[in-house]
Amino acid sequence: PEQARGEPCDPRVDQYALCAALYEAAYGERPIVADTVPALLAALERGEIRPPPSGSRVPGALRRVLLRGLSRDPADRWPSMDALLAALRRTVEPRRRWLVPAVLVGALVPGMGAWLWWRGSADPRCDDAAPLRGVWDDERREQVEAAVLATRVPYAPTAWSRIERDLDEYAAAWTREHTELCEATRTRAAEAATGLRLRCLHDRRVALQATVELLAAASPTRVAKAVPMLADLPALVQCRDVETLRGELGPPLDPEDAVRVEAGREQLWQAERLALAGEYEEAGHILDEAQPEVEALGHPTLRVEAMLARGRLDSQRGRFTEAAQELEQGYLLAVESGLDDMATFAATHFAFVLLQQSRLDEALRWARAGLLRARADPPNPSLEAFALRTIGASLRRLGELDEALEHQERALAIVEGLGRDDLVAVTLEDLSQTLLARQDLEGALEHQQRALASFEETLGPSHPYVATSRLNLADVLKARGDLEGAGEMLLRALAIFEGAHEVDHPHMGATWATLGEVRRQQGRLDEAREALERALVHFEATF
Known about the structure:
The chain is an all-alpha fold. 73% of the residues lie in helices and 0% in strands. The chain is built from 26 helices and no strands. It has helices at 12-27, 37-46, 60-69, 81-92, 99-108, 112-119, 138-150, 156-185, 192-216, 220-224, 226-231, 242-249, 255-276, 280-297, 300-316, 320-336, 340-356, 360-374, 381-397, 401-418, 421-437, 441-459, 464-479, 483-499, 508-521, 525-542. α20 (401-418) packs antiparallel against α21 (421-437) and α23 (464-479) packs antiparallel against α24 (483-499). It is globular and about 70 Å long. The two termini are 33 Å apart.
């Protein structure tokens, strides 16, 4: 389209051309209908793409990838050709090379179909010498490093160092679990328990692969969210709890349904990773695409996982009414189906959503229920800390400051024991806010400074999360009467946002508004007005 308009061209015209060619290869017809050159130019200008032909079996996910590449405005296309190729690879890469043999064997050998479901896909297999080849190996490491550094955000080198460390540690832990299980399997006959644990390890492998693929097509947003996304990789220790795994999988399925359930779970994993990377729209598309198959299968675990994925996504993008409904329904179905871990997840996240809606009494009840579940056997420390933080925040807003502080201190002890630097920092900020509400300004300052130091050490001094932490520190300094220090802290936060190309960051408005209030209190009214006007622009754009 830009070429037709006589505008300068850049590599994004190649992206358009590739998607036009792939569209014709997939559908057997060109994306734009035109019999004459003037008609073609008019269609290009309008951005008209013909609908899929009747009876087309091209997946909706592939069509969405192509349509984005065929956007009339180059800015609406994929950020790079690498990003386009990564999206295509996720869409069309064969999911299971073992599919036909597995189904045939399951049909021919009595009892084999049930064992196949318990054993999972046999991928990763115990006879595979390099089960993480193509997932996290030297080639993938080079791809991720190049993609992260190519974003040129100022915190990219620090982010890459942390990404490499976290991926190495997770891959090494996964390999240890897999090797230990496979070596034990060689000394005894294969058991259903072995299959359950392999199935669990396979799910973790899928989550790891989805995460690596996102980072191999890194954007500034993905790099900014990489550390919490990696910290959220599913725990490997859960793959040792055979009884819980058996309950989650439910009764054995016939091989064909087992394959369909597994494909559905992979879609949910992919959507979850995209949501954690901040790509909510694409995550929502994947969940929409998966939903009919999830309902048709009626598998309890898959249905609960889909509800919780949808609830968490809506919570992340601020759709709290929808999130509350989905998480409550997911909780009830999880309890009915005996899925204890998922019920705990639903209860704690439902409490958090209720807190965002200022339904404080309800948030307290659900968070306390989630806390009890998280402490049950086997305990879930991460969700226990999450529940304690939600209880603390609810109590703070209800004015119960001493009790709030007690819960937040217990949460801090847990996350410090888990070694979760990201959660340590946010929990320190929780404590700082409660101490600030108690007018313990020295305590609030100490905890907020510790939080800022933790963010800087973990993410680097130029990360947007560091800017948000500086905004919180400015609130404490302002309360202490240190207006000069607060103003300096806010200017440094704004410099980070702008230097990281995060000018539309949700906290930019709050930063400008706080700066306006500081300048007003200093009597610098022209600067105050300018800052507040800029805050208003951000708030109007956001809300």
